[in-house]
Amino acid sequence: MNWSISFEPLISWPLLALVLVPLALLALVGLWFRQRGGVLRFVALLALAAALFNPVFLNEEREPLKSVVALIVDRSQSQDIGDRTKQTDEALAGLQQRLGRFKQFDVRIVEAGKSDAAEERTETRLFGALEGAFRDVPPSRIGGAIMITDGEVHDAPPGAPDFNAPLHALITGNDHEKDRRIRFENAPRFGIVGKPLDMTYRVISTENETGPVDVRVSVNGEQVSVEHATVGQAMPLQVTIPGAGRNIIELAIDREPGELTDTNNRAIALVDGIRENLRVLLVSGEPHAGERTWRNLLKSDASVDLVHFTILRPPEKQDGTPINELSLIAFPTRELFVEKIKDFDLIIFDRYQHRDVLPILYYDYISEYVEKGGALLIAAGPEYAGEASIARTPLMSALPAMPTGEVVEKAFYPRLTDLGQRHPVTRGLDGSATEPPHWSRWFRTIGVQNPQGEVVMKGADNRPLLLLDRKGEGRVGMLLSDQGWLWARGFEGGGPHVQLYRRIAHWLMKEPELEEERLTAEGRGMVLEIRRQTMADNPGPAQIITPSGKTVTVKLDKSEPGVFLGSVQTNEIGLFQVANGDLTALAHVGPVNAPEFADVISTENRLKAPAEATGGSVRRLASSTALGSDVTLPSIVPVRSSGEASGSDWIGLRTTDDSVLKAVSRVPLFGGFLGLGLLLLAMGSMWYREGR
């Protein structure tokens, strides 16, 4: 019960002052001059004032509020090491039981550090979880916080946290833990394909040991070398980037006896391989309307170095002008097709015909160049069907189709074949989804027979229009029309010439993203996403080997022609191996070299400063140094805000003085007959004294 007095005047305060102040002055004057009945007049005035002030006794019925205590439980992956999970569970159960005995505490349990598929978990952030637990609690009601953790907390403040209550940390693990780890000191994010990349790494031991250790170096899952490193020293490393796109460089060391975990015995670096500028040789047989289409496209690509020659003066064109008076550049045939042919990534013959500009032997060199991994594109015009066709040279062994000698002059819409709808070069071309396609017509097709490879586009009368073929280690493309420039000029709305031509060129130069059969995997947050490109109708499920060695089968669903997708959510961080048919892929899920595993030794140091700043404490749950020792919990003591909050074997939590009002009882002092009687008694006494 809480008693208090309140005044509820019967008239307003200004009017009350207007009435009582003059009477008070008269009463005080009477007392000063010791007039007869002055005391009684003063008492009567006090009685009148009390009646007008109307004093009321209030009895408030209040219910005390509970102090809010946050119990933060670290569920990060480092807590899965050794006996830490067992210690955490035992400590949690014991604290819940002990806190349950105190009715003045409202306990909020928050588990932090769990895997989240929406975002990558890079750190253990317990103070963020603590802030969330107290977000709706007034500062006066915060009783304190208890953290059960291994001490590897990455958002610990340097001083006191933002609340005035004790913070206690109970540390899992043991004080004799041993661990050794490896990390990259310098790992560039980009590297040039085929060139060595300089990196540095370091092997670190908790016991400050020195000495040699073998480090296995793997690139995209294949071991490439074994390096000999010295523990504690920064070591140089050179790795050759094998291909364009994402490359995974992995360093690994063996697990030592008694080591806490081997999770951090591996270090990962993700390096994007970048090709040096691709060198393309474009040879135009003669000037024509579409000649600059190829030139402009290739020149606009910053990754392409273009060498372009146009045969303006073939040998049969003799007009008597002396050679030394011509401003034309002589075609350097030997330099291009003998000495430097291997330097080119792609050779394009644009409406080229055999006119003895190239010696017949050089066509053999070009065929050999393709067989050994080069790329050749034939942009055919009417010349390909004529007597001087390059198909009548030794180059014929590298060509995917022989001409029939027919040139079909007929309007048509270029269309994708069934294969073309799935092939990465033509799949999803802008405008291809409608019938007829949403692009302009062409008017010429070169007839061929017995086409090899894949026919991905068709022309008039369903004749082959675009052929893609492999010859030995190289690739050959053939575009059987010279009308692509109509798209570039915007005829009838134009068409996706840039998209098509660029894809053709990059497929010929073996761009990984344009491979027909390709398996890729990528980690997004804690989700492994799988993408399968294939020309088959159904590639079947994918098999996944997790970092812990478990095998998981994932169904791949068709997302568009030639593309199948699958995904799996996981709580493991590390390298995943994905296989489908003969193809394999590697993917890293979760943060690369996460701080969670950078240092897994349990520690009291990170939480000591914020705990001591609040009057709290940091102590280990396992008091002995024997691995797997039992948990020892401190006693819990409710303390006032000014008292000590920790001792050798106990921890204190603040209690609050806050309460909530439930009901109020009112007892007026001058209310009813009692008040009237007191007032009449005072007035009557004054009147009686005045009458004598």
Write the layout of secondary structure elements.
Elements: E1 2-7, H1 13-32, H2 38-53, E2 55-64, E3 67-74, H3 84-99, E4 105-112, H4 126-133, E5 142-149, E6 167-171, E7 180-186, E8 190-192, E9 196-205, E10 212-219, E11 222-230, E12 234-240, E13 245-252, E14 266-274, E15 278-284, H5 291-300, E16 304-310, H6 333-339, E17 346-350, H7 360-371, E18 375-379, E19 402-408, E20 415-416, H8 418-422, E21 445-449, E22 454-458, E23 464-471, E24 474-479, H9 485-488, H10 497-508, E25 518-524, E26 527-533, E27 542-545, E28 551-554, E29 557-560, E30 563-569, E31 574-580, E32 583-589, H11 595-598, H12 605-613, E33 617-620, E34 635-639, E35 650-654, E36 659-668, H13 672-691
Parallel strand pairs: 3-4, 3-5, 5-6, 6-33, 8-14, 15-16, 15-17, 17-18, 18-24, 34-35
Antiparallel strand pairs: 1-2, 2-36, 7-9, 9-12, 10-11, 10-13, 13-14, 19-21, 20-22, 22-23, 23-24, 25-26, 26-30, 27-28, 27-31, 29-30, 31-32
Query: Strand order, biggest sheet?
Result: 16-15-17-18-24-23-22-20
Count of β-strands: 36
Q: What would you report as the Rg, rounded to the nearest angstrom?
A: 44 Å
Summarize the biggest pleated sheet.
8 strands, mixed
Strand fraction equals 25-35%
Instruction: Catalogue the unreliable spans.
Output: none
So what's the oligomer here?
A: single chain
Instruction: Please state the overall shape, judged from the principal axes of the Cα atoms.
Output: elongated
Derived from helix and strand composition plus strand pairing, the structural class reads alpha/beta
The total of helices stands at 13
Head-to-tail CA distance between termini: 48 Å
| Percent of residues in helices | 10-25%
* pLDDT averaged over residues: 83
Transmembrane segments: 12-32, 39-58, 669-688
Protein name: Glutamine amidotransferase domain-containing protein
Keywords: Membrane, Transmembrane, Transmembrane helix
InterPro entries: Class_I_gatase-like
